[in-house]
């Protein structure tokens, strides 16, 4: 499944003032990826920062991309297998709760890079909610509301600074 095939998807994008090859360096290791994908949202929960943490990242097809998020002060893990890792073009991975919370199929996350306006347009897609089962409209609406620009803004800062 691709973002174009999905009925329900979340899309966020940002223009980074750098060529795609330079932006892609932020995807090449857990250290580089963690600087922006693991960006923490400044909102304390029980004395601990609330946000997303990159805990496993194997930058190759068949590798894993796993994160943890604090929900009501407890860590919840999610992520999955990397399905596309095409230098300076695309990272796609499956996304499910670990352990599964009952989705029929995982959702997908795709990050695409393409030249635009003397820089790189970075597009983030979270899609496939129609395959999860249950109340897919509510599931999609929750993620649509939940996705912000934190990671993409952090990527822009990491690359441009």
CATH-defined superfamily: START domain
Basic shape: globular
Topology, number of strands = 8
Sheet with most strands: 8 strands, antiparallel
Mean pLDDT across residues = 89
Order of helices and strands: EHHEEEEEEEHH
Distance between the termini: 35 Å
Write structural notes for this entry.
- Residues 41-50 have low confidence and may be disordered.
- This protein has an 8-stranded antiparallel beta sheet with strand order 1-8-7-6-5-4-3-2.
- It contains 4 helices and 8 strands.
- It has a single domain, classed as Alpha-D-Glucose-1,6-Bisphosphate, Chain A, domain 4 (2-Layer Sandwich), CATH 3.30.530.
- The chain starts with 8 loop residues before the first strand and ends with a helix.
- It is globular, with a radius of gyration of 15 Å.
- 20% of the residues lie in helices and 45% in strands.
- A hairpin with a 3-residue loop joins β5 (74-86) and β6.
- It is an alpha+beta fold and 161 residues long.
Task: Note the topology.
Blueprint lengths: L8 E8 L3 H5 L5 H5 L5 E6 L2 E10 L6 E8 L2 E13 L3 E9 L8 E10 L2 E9 L8 H11 L3 H11 L1
Antiparallel strand pairs: 1-8, 2-3, 3-4, 4-5, 5-6, 6-7, 7-8
Notable features of this structure?
161 residues; alpha+beta; Alpha-D-Glucose-1,6-Bisphosphate, Chain A, domain 4; 8-stranded antiparallel β-sheet; globular
Write a brief structural summary.
With 161 residues, the chain is an alpha+beta fold. It is built from four helices and eight strands; from the N terminus they run E-H-H-E-E-E-E-E-E-E-H-H.
């Amino acid at each position: 499944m691709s973002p174009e095939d999905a009925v329900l998807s979340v899309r966020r994008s940002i223009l980074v003032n750098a060529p795609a090859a330079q932006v892609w360096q932020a995807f090449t290791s857990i250290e580089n990826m963690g600087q922006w994908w693991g960006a923490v949202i400044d909102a304390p929960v029980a004395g601990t920062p609330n946000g997303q943490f990159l805990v496993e990242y194997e930058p190759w097809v068949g590798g894993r991309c796993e994160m943890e998020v604090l929900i009501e002060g407890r860590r919840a893990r999610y992520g999955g297998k990397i399905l596309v890792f095409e230098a300076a073009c695309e990272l796609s991975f499956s996304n499910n709760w670990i352990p599964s919370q009952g989705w029929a199929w995982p959702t997908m996350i795709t990050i695409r890079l393409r030249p635009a306006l003397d820089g790189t347009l970075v597009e983030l897609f979270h899609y496939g909610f129609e395959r999860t089962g249950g109340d897919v409209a509510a599931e999609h609406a929750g993620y649509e509301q939940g996705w912000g620009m934190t990671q993409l803004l952090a990527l822009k800062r990491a690359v441009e600074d």
